Amino acid sequence: MAESDSDVPSKRTSRPSKKQTKLNQNVSIVENKKLQAAIEKLQKQNLELQKKQVLQDKANRLLRENYADEYSRAHNGCQLSDLESEDDDTPSGRLSFSSSIQSKGLISTPPRKLRKAGQPRIPASPPSPELQMMEIPHIDFRSSSFHRICNQKSSPLPGDSDSLSEVNNHFMTNPTPLQTATVQHSEPERDPNSSASDNPVQVAGSKHARSPQAPTSESDTPSNAKKARIAKVAAGSKGVNQCDYDDTEVERTWLQELSDEACEEFGEVYELTRAHVRGAMKSDMKALVVATYSFAISTKKVTIEQNKKKYVMLATCGAFTCKEPKALRRRFKNRIIPMVITEHFFGHSKAPGIIWEDDFADVKVETLALVMTILEHCIEEWADGTFKAQKLNDITQTPQYLTHLKDVKAWCSGDATVTGNICRLWAMKGRTHADVQPKQISDGFIDDAEKERLVADLQGRTGETDSEAEADDEEEGDIVKSEE
Question: Which residues lie in Low complexity bias regions (predicted)?
Answer without folding.
Answer: 154-165
